[in-house]
Amino acid sequence: MNTRYLHIIGLKASFLFTLLMGASCVMQPDSGQVTPAPSEDSRLDSSYTIADNLTIENNSGSAHEPGPSPTSDEYTLDIAALLCSEYQVLVDFQSLTAGQSVEGLGAVSRYLNISTSTGQAEVIASGSADVAYSAPSEASSVENGCLGNPGGYSVSDRSIFGKGFSDIGKQHNYTFRFAPGMLVSQFSLLMLDFGDYNPSQAAYHEVDLTAYDILGNVVDQDTLSYASATDAIPRTSTYGDLYLTGDACTAEPGQPGNFKFDVQGSGIARVVLSIPEGMDPNIGFDNLTFTPDCLPPPPPPCGSKVLADFESLTAGQSVEGLGAVSPYLNISTSTGQAEVIASGTVDVGYGAPSGAASVENGCLGNPGGYGAYGYTIPGNGFSDIGRQHDYTFRFAPGMAVSQFSLLMLDFGDYNPSQAAYHEVDLTAYDILGNVVDQHRLSYTSATDAIPRTSTRGDLYFTGDACTAEPGQPGNFRFNVQGSGITRVVLSIPYGMDPNIGFDSLAFTPACLF
Fold it and tell me: What's this model's pTM, rounded to 2 decimal places?
């Protein structure tokens, strides 16, 4: 059996987090039974459960169930697994109790939030008193007959015991959302016993499962539609005799009584099941599955600070993309050339101090330690070697932050455009693109390539990484704060110094779950 174990190590200096992995469950390949794992270091060959009623299954992956988060303000993260698109979440309802509500985040899965207009969607079971429908369509009918998860329908054994769910209020307008920030690429649902009862005596019947992205755009739709006789118990239709093809026990897969809906696409944030025409109110649902685009790692405690300090990374290594320096941070530039820089290395963001004693990327140090006489303090940071310096910082899917800060080094001692006005902006945006906060460095200077006069003093010193005091252009910390920050952009609209570096990147996550 092919086993894949995503294990990211060596990130202690890249960001300060620790993931404490909790107990998991392991599917025993011989017995098919789910049993507790013997230790927190157990690996999974084919599936594992993270709740009694939730299974994550794959053909080649392995993972851990996250345990409780640490409480310290700063901590390190060793990611045991990121659960991405090769994993499918199966919600099988078997461990739940008939009559138990399935509505609300966590009712059936920590990653799923079901809602209806009636608020009466609940677990149903074959033979139970909470009746959504009866099957088969004859004298031997059983309450919620032929529910079975994950399938196993049989004409000869019509009372297969199983559990599913239904809106006992009979409106059947379901909305499926996911954990805050989670997007999925696939969602499927089995509908049972639709079509053998037609109380509105409709000639046309339609059931839609529609997937939407976060902006409300339709990603995909799966529709069951057909025409039938206008009888309350229709025997003729484009699907044949609905007494049989609309029955949970006798319908073949793909017929109205045993119809699996499936929607797929990138960035699904919400799925809606609706019945606009010709409802059969006596129906049930089962075999709900979805495939996460990516399950983000568990969040740090609310209000804790993430420090991306770059020290364990290698000079020349790219810092772009989600996970390059932190599983919670995604850096991008227009050049795609933002990379780790280190004091004294050949990948040069800038030289400092100004003069003959200049060192490549001099006086980088994380989390600081800059001094006028400590010119060669070793340290790592990052810079856009393509010299455009237009950085966008995003976060893990669904993550919002309340604070973001970044130290810019060596800005101002070189003025190749001979500009008189200089401006650098760090701007924070919310998910709708509204500005949450902005921090700006601006000043005027002489129009020399090596300016010695400015409103910030002699830039030979105040624009130098080694000799600038904190708050001067050569050693300037940007900081933005506010609620719901999802994107931060650093831009230099006027008077760029292209030979600069960055360090001491920090942000404070808001709650994910």
Answer: 0.49
